[in-house]
Structures are given as structure tokens and as C-alpha cells.
Write a structure and sequence with these properties.
It is a single chain. This protein has 2 domains: 142 residues, 3-Layer(aba) Sandwich (Rossmann fold), CATH 3.40.50; 69 residues, Alpha-Beta Plaits (2-Layer Sandwich), CATH 3.30.70.260. The chain has 6 helices and 15 strands. The protein is of the alpha/beta class. It binds ribulose-5-phosphate. The site of ribulose-5-phosphate (5RP) has 17 residues, from helix 4.
């Protein structure tokens, strides 16, 4: 296992300790929360009783393979705890998410969660959002070109996300535009602008949602509450 993967494992497994019997658990998406889901699967096989709410088809498949019972938001409108990865974490625990493509469902799940634990390796910690990661914006296909034109006015560079040369399609049937900034000094202002952009159905700014960050570092796991 590479150093980065080992740090992800440390953080991901630690987060599983915060899950208690009877909880409804939001299950994030990505290579760090992967380790949380494996650990939760182990605990379920030892008798832990939880209901998971998956944030992507990939997480749904993994959780079912691990024997975790799944539900949906209609059955469970409030979630006790969500555990998810991130692409950047700032000192206020504001986040950029969505490089794994699941930002829309992840934000819905986070918004109805009592607690949101973020699991990352220490390369994801930044002073200012938008300095390392692109900011993903999910757009409906009909509005892809008009959203690109608007986003070009806001950031340094925009890239339509592609896989194998084809425009990437999310679990919701929409597309993603990755926006490069040389820092986002006022994330609330940018979020306001993006949430008023016709055809842009979600963006990767997660502001004020995370309550705890578990960070895998070469010295072991560190746990941060606001401020970092
Ligand atoms: C998916 C996400 C992921 O949580 C984020 O990209 C981090 O992924 P990883 O843990 O693989 O680095 O937001 O939409």
C-alpha cells in the first residue's frame, strides 16, 4: 500500500469508530471512505445494526457487498452521521468535493445529517479553497455550453470532465465542469453566484457542513474540530 493510501486507510478506518448501533449513516464516495465502508462491513458482520444511505451507485454496490443494509431519504429523512472524503479542507472545515463525481448526492446527504465527518489524507489540507483542486460544477447536459460560457467569466480555466474521451456522465445523468481558480477568497460569494446559474444543478463547495475532520498523516491520525 502506498503512503497516501495508508494515510487514507488510517483516516477511513478511524471514522468507523464514530458509528453507533441503530444509527442511520450517510455513506460518502471515494477511495478514503472506501476504508470506512470496509470497516463498517466488518462491524456489521460482528452484529452492528445500521442503515446506510449511499451517495453513489459505486458506494451502493460496495456497501451491499459488505453486507450493510441500505435505505433511502424517503424512509430516513434525517441522518445521524455522514462520513465522506474531500478534495480540499480549509481551516474552517469548509470543503471542495466532487472530484469523484458524486457531489450532488453527497451534498443532499450532508445537508440532512446531524454530523458530517470528513476523512482525508493530509495532502487535502489547504489554507484557502481552490488552491490545489479544481472546483467541480454539475450541470444538466442541455445547459453545458451556456454554463461553460458563464463559468469562464468566473475562473481561470474550465474543463469539461471526460472519461475515455467521452463527456463524463454522473449518476444523475448530468455532466461536470471542473473550474480552476488560483484560490477562492470568498467561497460564500462564489457559492451564491453558482447556485443562481441556470442549468448548474450543484457545485462542489461544501460550506458549514462538516463537523469533524479525521486526517491521516505520516505521524498517525489527527482529529480536528473547527478551527483546524
Ligand atoms: C466524490 C468526492 C470524494 O469524496 C473526493 O473526491 C475525495 O475522494 P478520495 O477519498 O478518493 O480522495 O467528493 O464526489
Amino acid at each position: 500500500m502506498s503512503d497516501a493510501s495508508e494515510m487514507k486507510r488510517l483516516a477511513g478506518e478511524k471514522a468507523a469508530e464514530y458509528v453507533e448501533d441503530g444509527m442511520v449513516v450517510g455513506l460518502g464516495t471515494g477511495s478514503t471512505v472506501f476504508f470506512t465502508i470496509l470497516k463498517l462491513g466488518e462491524r456489521v458482520r460482528e452484529g452492528l445494526n445500521i442503515v446506510g444511505i449511499p451517495t453513489s451507485k459505486a458506494t451502493e454496490k460496495l456497501a451491499l457487498e459488505q453486507g450493510i443494509s441500505l435505505g433511502n431519504l424517503a424512509e430516513h429523512p434525517r441522518i445521524d452521521i455522514t462520513i465522506d472524503g474531500a478534495d480540499e479542507v480549509d481551516p474552517e472545515l469548509n470543503l471542495i468535493k466532487g472530484m469523484g463525481g458524486a457531489l450532488l448526492r453527497e451534498k443532499v446527504v450532508a445537508s440532512v445529517s446531524e454530523k458530517m465527518i470528513i476523512v482525508v489524507d493530509d495532502s487535502k489540507i489547504v489554507e484557502t479553497l481552490g488552491t490545489k483542486s479544481a472546483l467541480p460544477v454539475e450541470v444538466v447536459p442541455f445547459a453545458l455550453s451556456s454554463c461553460i460560457a458563464e463559468l469562464e467569466k468566473l475562473c481561470d480555466e474550465v474543463m469539461t470532465r471526460k472519461t475515455d474521451g467521452q463527456i463524463y456522465v454522473t449518476d444523475n445523468g448530468s455532466n461536470i465542469v471542473d473550474c480552476l481558480f488560483s484560490g477562492i477568497p470568498d467561497p460564500e460569494k462564489l457559492e451564491n453566484i453558482l447556485s443562481r446559474m441556470p442549468g448548474a444543478i450543484e457545485n462542489g463547495l461544501f460550506l458549514g457542513l462538516a463537523t469533524l475532520a479525521i486526517v491521516g498523516t505520516p505521524e498517525g491520525v489527527k482529529v480536528y474540530q473547527k478551527p483546524i
